[in-house]
Design goal:
It holds the Pfam family Flavokinase. It catalyses: FMN + ATP + H(+) = FAD + diphosphate; riboflavin + ATP = FMN + ADP + H(+). It comes from candidate division WOR-3 bacterium. This is Riboflavin biosynthesis protein. The longest helix has 22 residues. This protein is an alpha/beta fold. α7 runs antiparallel to α8. It has two domains: 144 residues, Rossmann fold (3-Layer(aba) Sandwich); 123 residues, Riboflavin kinase-like (Elongation Factor Tu (Ef-tu), domain 3), CATH 2.40.30.30.
Length: 296
């Protein structure tokens, strides 16, 4: 093999738009018998701003790498996203790609930007093809109904609890993974055993409310109902992800679980009494079980 076909991007979420770009790289590499390469970043531009949101990522670094590999990419070059990289000009970055990876062909999404001041647009790059001796393919957008699929669109869906629409844009259910940590045991006192899950500090959680979820535990897929919020009825104040596993009673402290968000059930609410809360939790469990039985 001689040279490489390259695409560059943060690829947070590895959504359907990203998948189209990466599959184009793989197809061209097969056609021209050269190596497909994804250049991505560790860290996110969001975190270099003055007041980054605490939770922003659709995929952790490890999740992103795994998803890219699943698309047929063996060579992934990970660059640390820092101020030095942010200040690298377009021509300097193209020279880096030519020198280090013998780039013969660059694949870009229609609205992708790279380099200092985001000046590396497809239009700008197209004017540098002869100077740096490579080809350029620009991949058109992917739409969900009339909206262009993007990481920002998916974040907005999730913040609003619209997990089904997020799943359509991702091409899979939205997933959160983490370790089971010890909670306060209040749900157990109400008659509902739950697990509290500690997730990556920058991983975006869907908006506050109750959801039907699938929970991956080892090789098992368990039905569950998830609550995200601060428990206004109980006055706990701590934002958390708490899950009741339907018809499953094993202790899971310290275990790693993966949660797939299937459907939004209801918004967070402050109830007038613990009895009213208990009645609503029973209804939530019944509804989640019904949803998951149909989806399964």
């Amino acid at each position: 093999m001689y040279g490489s076909i390259v695409t560059i991007g943060n690829f947070d979420g590895v959504h359907l738009g990203h998948q189209k770009v990466i599959s184009t790289v793989v197809s061209l590499a097969r056609a021209f018998l050269i190596e497909p390469l994804v250049v991505t970043f560790k860290g996110h531009p969001k975190f270099l701003k003055m007041s980054p949101e605490a939770r922003y990522l659709l995929t952790t670094h490890d999740e992103k790498i795994f998803l890219i590999q699943q698309l047929g990419i063996k060579h992934i070059e990970v660059l640390e996203f820092n101020e030095t990289l942010m200040q690298m000009g377009v021509e300097e970055f193209l020279h880096y790609l030519k020198k280090n990876f013998n780039m013969q062909h660059l694949v870009m999404g229609f609205n992708h930007h790279f380099g200092r001041n985001r000046e590396g647009t497809p239009e700008k790059v197209s004017r540098l093809l002869n100077k740096f001796d490579f080809y350029l393919t620009v991949v058109p957008p992917v739409f969900l109904r009339e909206q262009v699929i993007s990481s920002t669109l998916i974040r907005d869906f999730l913040k609003e609890g619209r997990v089904e629409e997020a799943a359509k844009a991702l091409g899979r259910l939205y997933t959160v993974s983490g370790v089971v940590s010890k909670g306060k045991g209040i749900a157990g006192d109400l008659g509902f055993k739950t697990v509290n899950i500690t997730v990556h500090e920058n991983k975006l959680l869907p908006g506050n409310g109750v959801y039907a979820v699938e929970v991956l535990y080892g090789e098992k897929i368990l039905k569950g109902v998830a609550y995200i919020g601060k428990s206004p009825t109980l006055g706990l104040g701590e934002h958390r992800l708490e899950i009741h596993l339907i018809n499953f009673n094993k202790h899971l402290y310290g275990e790693n679980l993966t949660v797939n968000f299937v459907k939004f059930i209801r918004a967070e609410k402050k109830f007038a009494s613990l009895e009213e809360l208990t009645q609503q939790i029973r209804k939530d469990i019944q509804k989640a079980n019904s949803i998951l039985s149909l989806s399964g």
